[in-house]
Specification:
The protein contains 20 helices and 44 strands. By secondary structure, the protein is α+β, with helices and mostly antiparallel strands.
Length: about 900
Amino acid sequence: MTDLKTEALPPPPPEIPLNFVRAKAPVPNRVPMARRGFGSKGQKISIVTNHFNVKLSSTSDNFYQYSVALSYEDGNPVEAKGVGRGVLDEVQKLYGSDLDGKGFAYDGEKTMFTVGPLPGTKFEFPVVLENSSSNRIIRGGSPSEGESTKRSRRPPQSKSYTVKISYATKIPIQAIFDALRGHESEQFHEAVRVLDVLLRQHAAKQGCLLVRQCFFHNDPKLSISIGGGVVGCRGFHSSFRATQGGLSLNMDVSTTMIVRPGKVVDFLLENQNVRNIRDIDWVKAKRMLKNLRIKTSPSTIEHKIIGLSEKSCREQKFTMKQRGGGSPSEPIEITVFEYYAKFRGYILGESQHFPCLDVGKPKRPVYIPLELCELISLQRYTKSLSNLQRASLVEKSRQKPQDRMRALTDALNRSDYNSDPLIKSTGITISTTFNQLEGRVLEPPKLKFGSGGDLFPRGGRWNFNNKTLVDPSKINCWAVVNFSARCDINGLIRNLLRATQAKGMNVSEPYTVIEENHQARRNPAPVRVDMMFGAIKEQLPGPPSFLLCILPERKNSDIYGPWKRKCLAEFGIVTQCVAPTRINDQYVTNLLLKINSKMGGINSLLAVEQSNLIPLVSKIPTVIFGMDVSHGSPGRSDVPSIAAVVSSRQWPLISRYRASVRAQSARVEMIDGLFQPVSADKDEGMIRELLEDFYLSTPRLKPQHIIIFRDGVSESQFSQVLNIEFEQIMQACKYLDDTWDPKFMIIVAQKTHHTKFFQPNSDANVPPGTIIDNKVCNPKNNDFYLCAQNGPIGTTRPTHYHVLLDQIGFSPDDLQELVHSLSYVYQRSTTAISVVAPICYAHLAAAQMSQFVKFDDMSDAASSHSGGAGSSAAGFTQLPKLHDRVSSSMFFC
């Protein structure tokens, strides 16, 4: 792409060093912009939200933070989790007078807070805590009857601790009032953290499971079974927010996964989907049970499982010391089965033939038969869910708006925060009624089709009945490949050809249908793909322009990744994968929309886009970026994250995009590959690649406006977006042409928040196009909420947009209209989507590249440019280069 460099973007002056290191450049200190005004367009609508007013007394005392250090009596620090709350409760009981009777909020780890100061700056208290869950049993025995007969004369085991409390800092309550006036500071976040800790401690006293800022009651009515012995436990999220309407408590429904409490045997049967204990895979069982806690029958003492016995109860022996008469006799070896029969008078049932649970220590096992063990409640299940479990969770977690409102009201009343003396001492009062506010419903944008005239979507939806595509593509040489799927292929082809003709596409009959050899099914997926391409070369006269691939399984077929890689990286063939279960008109239309977009066509346009009437976009060359990062599964630090940036092309269109993708360090959210100079005239970053594409896809124009939509970052990372990512983007622009000075806009879109909106006295969601930029928004920063989508199921989740920078000068109405319109240009759908299309495309591109690449066999020699390439700062092997024929296509659509 030399035209861009030589004709319009000259290289930088020679004094720029060859080994340019951007880390040496001073890091600027940009902050999010302040709000410039409010929107006024749209029909006004009354709304309530799940924010609850918090009144704070202006005479409230300051918060004081203290460090807490726990150690055993030998001086070693306490590292076990869950010990601190019990120890600190004992401190309050025994030494309350030494602390002036003050209550404190303890975070469960190393920090506590008080309202007003303690009488000193350093304290040290000895505490003895009974260890109710200790293994006070004979080795190999059970904590039931044997405990009373053998150890009745021994006192309960206990542990001694030393608690050191020392003053850390003062947190002024005034910081909250300052934040409500738009002067947010780090002290505000610390003050709000104190309030959050107060609520967590209150929930802990009620016996809740705490997961960050969520809490879960032990209530079977709030549980949903999703199979495999896993239960979705419904609970509630709570956090304090500074808003234009004052301080508010944001409460929302939350769900965490727990193991089903009850008999261990029942859990294993359900977890492994078997009917009989004889069919249990004990290797899997050991992995699944490790670190779970049980109680034994008939005792209620708790234990942690460390593993399983190597042999069955009948065969597993242990050494037991006996006491008879006045002196101990020689130790004896006895099996677990014999021990229970002889010393407990209990004959084990079927579990005698299977392993015991080991609840001791690595060198001192304690064996308990399975049939005597029950899993205790509220134990988190942290392993990955299967596809079926995920689908079940999504389906069963849905709540209609009024059901969610009732659940939140019940949770707030049940929590009864205003009765907590420590919370009352802070001077705060929490309302129990939903905040009311005013929203606006924006008109849907008019859409343009190939024929049939314009159309205004209704309820966030539209269809292609009696309409053709705006820019239909042409497909000549193509074929169908079938990986052993049972499907009416001839019927699918007939329906597809009929639909393409009706929508204006020129698609010929497929050259052939290539069936997988039945003997190939047993091979690994990459081998099956290679064999299929061997058949394609044999049966087709030349390279096809398109392949329709029928997969045998829906969702995560192991063939999908190798197939996509082969098509897109090696051969440059556009492909569409399907796994149809029921073929109808809507299915075929949706399939057609994807194929047309991938082949370079456009399905529909905004009317204002076609007539060049988008304010500040249509008249001035403008490029729109969408940026996102896709991470591997939780805990997989060996799998790189995938960063993707998509950009609009062929200005003045804003409906056509291409993508650039890079691998980078695992779990890193900031995008590293935006600007990667390797010499004075060579930058291998994503922004350069996309700007060159914009320049070549328009008649040799450089964008004067650059609008950036960023997904996946939290409010604490806004400064990094402004000062690190934005800096890279500007350097990439200057690297291409140091006289070029475009104007920028940066908008962050957030979906992972807990604000919801409801129509009072209605079980329907808020209408599509509902926008809120008042009362519940930030007191100073430029943000707004938008519900662009139709929410027919469950409760609509709005997207929270934060405008971090606007050098272009959009009015609030023009910006909100643009964001709303970008929810209607998603080419593979006939509905408005919940977040702007560029972000959805970036997410799709990152997800697809991560799926069709196996990182352990990436080529070190892969090129670092084009739509799917790149090296990361962490030294990962690189993503393969997309073939030139597909690199600028919407392959991700």
